[in-house]
Amino acid sequence: MAGDSSLSGRNGIRGRLWTIIFEAETKSGKAFDVLLLLAIGLSVVAVMLDSIESFAMRWGRALKAAEWGFTLLFMTEYFVRIWVVRRPARYIFSFFGIIDFLSWIPTFLGMFFLGSQSLLVIRILRLLRMFRVLKMVGHMRGASIIMRGLLASRAKITVFFFAMVVLATIMGTVAYLLESGQPQSKFTNIPVSIYWAIVTVTTLGYGDLAPLTVEGKFLSALCVLIGYSIMAVPTGIVIGETVNAAMNRQDETTDACPSCGVHGHLLDARYCRRCGERLNLPERGPGPPHSYKEGAGETEP
Which of 72-76, 164-168, 285-289 has the weakest average pLDDT? Predict the structure, then answer.
């Protein structure tokens, strides 16, 4: 493994770039994260402004220049990440590796392929990169707990979802039987009636469909009452599982795997949770888990 030490040590250009990009607790890493967040935010604002016709007509050249600037910046960062990790393929095909790729490639597609202008909307996916930066600097522990709560409750939520589908199907079919015989009825078939039932049970009520008969109106009121009664069920399920996840939470380190760049390992982890690469995380004392300074942990991950 000696030949790989430059990728994660503090000596050499690759090691220094690794520290800046992947080590969120160092001064240089924090500065890089702040600048990256700023660039992502400004690039998304530029995409939004470009969709406003009057603004695009007046500031089109400036927006175009800004877009190419952000594209070259993100492209350079993408290839630097590939260069500094030990196993580039694992980063390239990881979730955030794909997001990083999609953050700059649409601009080139729009230049070389006619009719691909709509692909430029993919640039909005740059917002997803903010989650990685926030996770690296330790601000995503709350979101991690919520995600664990959602995953733990997925079976119960699935059962609830199918129960709602069955309920909407029954209510929609009954509404069709009650309303289809009316001259001006918009309940022309069962699928349309099921759409009405879903909108009504979820209390959205767009108003594009409305029952005309007394029985249909009674059914509509019943759907609303049922909707209000059961909408709290999934909320309670998720909250309960989230509380359990918070009580059983284990602290995580912001250190990145030197092979694939993934974060979110437990403090006592010695191998990457995704690719199995040995981590050799720097030793922590009894203090806060993320309090070590730049220069600590000179050993190879």
Answer: 285-289
> Does 10 have pLDDT greater than 50?
no
pLDDT at res. 143: 64
Q: What is the mean pLDDT of the chain?
A: 77
Both structure tokens of 211: 């029952």
Question: Buried b / exposed e across 279-296, counting CB within 10 Å, b at 16+?
Answer: bbbeebeeeeebebeeee
Q: Residue 141 pLDDT > 70, yes or no?
A: no
d(CA 140, CA 253): 11
Other Cβ atoms within 10 Å of 258 Cβ, number: 26
Chain centroid, CA 147 distance in Å: 11
What CATH number labels 154-239? Answer: 1.10.287.70
pLDDT of residue 284: 46
Q: Give 2-138's CATH code, choosing from 2.130.10.10, 1.20.120.350, 1.10.10.10, 1.10.10.60.
A: 1.20.120.350
The band of 139, judged by pLDDT with boundaries at 50, 70 and 90, is low
Domain(s) labelled CATH 1.20.120.350 in the chain stretch across 2-138
State the burial class of residue 28 (Cβ atoms within 10 Å of its Cβ: 0-12, 13-18, 19+).
Answer: middle
Question: By 3-state DSSP, what share of the chain in percent is helix, strand and coil, each rounded to 5?
Answer: 65, 0, 35
Q: Please tell me the distance from the alpha carbon of residue 33 to that of residue 106, in angstroms, as a whole number.
A: 23
Tokens read off for 194: 């099921």
What beta strand segments (E) does the chain contain?
A: 252-253, 265-266
Q: For 186-231, write each residue's pLDDT tens digit.
A: 898 999 999 999 999 888 878 888 999 999 999 999 999 988 888 7
CATH 1.10.287.70 residue ranges of the chain are 154-239
